[in-house]
Amino acid sequence: MPATRLTDFSKLCLHTITTKPWDIETAIAKYAAAKVSGITVWRQWLEDRDHNKVGNTIREAGLKTVSLCRGGFFPAKEQKNRQIAIDDNKRAIDEAAAIYAPHVVLVCGAVPGQALDESRKQILDGIAACLDHARAANVKLAIEPLHPMYAADRSAVNTLKQANDMCSRLDDPYVGVAVDVYHLWWDPGLKKEIIRCGKAGKLLAFHICDWRTPTVDMLNDRGLMGEGCINIRQIRGWVEQTGFNGFNEVEIFSNRWWAADQDMFISEIKRAYLQCS
Ligand code: ZN
User: Fold this and answer.
1) What is the pLDDT of residues 11-39, one digit of tens each?
2) What pLDDT is attached to residue 2?
3) Residue 107 alpha carbon to ligand 1 centre in Å
4) Hey, what domains does the chain have and what are their CATH numbers?
5) 205 C-alpha to center of ligand 1: Å?
6) Whose CB among 38, 161, 204, 222 lies 3.0–4.6 Å from 142's, allowing a Cys bridge?
7) What spacing in Å lies between the alpha carbon of 58 and ligand 1's midpoint?
């Protein structure tokens, strides 16, 4: 089933990191003026701010808070540091509740030199340790698998199958997954796993951008939709097929785009959103 055609911006969400030069107040005002409908707030944008006030400013601007990014980074060699991570994730859950975000996206973490299986076990334990807190705050946790190029140091969860298997193991309504086309587009099992998590009611978030060739920076060279090789429309079709009715979240880390005029960048995002997503 092909994806529906995007003809308006009612499902367009921007991550604050996409327009990194703007602080939270500027981002909210500019997104609202541009008729963007949703905002995903990165935690750095909440530093030195009254979280409740930020949440209310988002609402008053007519935007919907889609997610808080990001928690996770559970694995560590020492127990003491794993506990620090769990405590920090509980703070992230509180921040999400304050800004009306229904879930926290988890970049699960990895430790260079530690076996990936051990890191995955620590991730499971870390998420499990946060679940009572998540339930009390009514904030879900979304496991975001990261591209395998980040397996050494950012996430030991690298396929949607691994994330789905973790959801099955944890078997809790407060755990789901975030699908990011940048991390998962290459996976021959992607369609099957999207259907799997969608049917299980575990598909919480959908992130879009593009993969540039060559990619000149592992972290900060993501492309605007249409600048790369990802068939976003096909993947969005699979996501829609599951009944997913959430936002298409534009998440672009890009030194090139951050150096550009951000008002012009938003115009480009809106054009690319309709033409290439
Ligand atoms: Zn993402």
Assistant:
1) 999 999 999 999 999 999 999 999 999 99
2) 84
3) 9
4) 12-276 (3.20.20.150)
5) 9
6) 204
7) 21
CA torsion angle 148 152 153 157 (round to 10): 50
Rounded CA-CA distance 186/181 in Å is 9
Helix orientation angle between 24-33 and 262-276, rounded to the nearest 10 degrees: 50
Phi, psi of 226 (to 5 degrees): 100, -15
The maximal CA–CA distance of the chain, rounded, in angstroms, is: 51
Supply the mean pLDDT for the chain.
98
Tell me the CA–centroid distance for residue 129 and ligand 1, in Å: 23
Q: Which residue has the tokens 């530093």?
A: 47
Dist. CA 157 → ligand 1 center (Å): 13
Are the CB atoms for 55 and 65 separated by under 8 Å? yes
Give the predicted TM-score (pTM) of the model: 0.98
Length of the chain: 277
Q: How many angstroms is it from 207 CA to the middle of ligand 1?
A: 5
Sorted by sequence, the CB contacts under 8 Å of residue 138 that are 6+ apart come out as: 97
Ligand 1 centroid distance, CA of 251 (Å)? 6
Query: Per residue in 155-183, pLDDT tens?
Result: 999 999 999 999 999 999 999 999 999 99
Task: Tell me the one-letter amino acid at 41.
Answer: V
Interval 198-221: pLDDT, tens: 999 999 999 999 999 999 999 999
Find the mean pLDDT for residues 76-103.
98
Residue 43 burial (10 A CB sphere; 0-12, 13-18, 19+):
middle
135 three-state secondary structure: helix
Nearest alpha-carbon partner for 255 in 202, 213, 215:
215
Runs of H (alpha helix) within the chain: 24-33, 51-60, 79-98, 116-137, 160-170, 181-184, 190-199, 232-241, 255-258, 262-276
CB 75 within 8 A of CB 127: no
